[in-house]
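ARCHIVE CARD
CATEGORY: sequence design from structure
SOURCE FIELD: tokenized fold
FIELD CONTENT:
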């Protein structure tokens, strides 16, 4: 499913970028060879970051990113 129409990014590409360490929408765009354009996908990308980051081990048991980053709430 396409998440970012401006850059043609699918949910699979976004999930892979987040799993590889992208923790901001800008980092996701860059990891996928794109850039921020209309911003219409920002909330969806932030949700993907929260979801994937929550599954990865962190210093507070896996939910560290969602709690540490107000923009991701
Ligand atoms: S839909 Fe992603 S930047 Fe426009």
């Amino acid at each position: 499913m396409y998440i970012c129409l401006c850059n043609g990014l699918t949910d699979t590409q976004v999930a892979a970028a987040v799993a590889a360490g992208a923790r901001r929408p800008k980092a996701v765009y860059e990891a996928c060879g794109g850039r921020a354009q209309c911003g219409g996908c920002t909330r969806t990308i932030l949700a993907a970051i929260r979801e994937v980051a929550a599954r990865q081990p962190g210093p507070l048991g896996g939910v560290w990113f969602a709690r540490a980053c107000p923009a991701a709430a």
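CARD ANNOTATION: The pocket of FE2/S2 (inorganic) cluster is lined by residues 4-7, 36-41 (CB under 6 Å). The chain has one domain: 2-72.
SHELF: design records, drawer C
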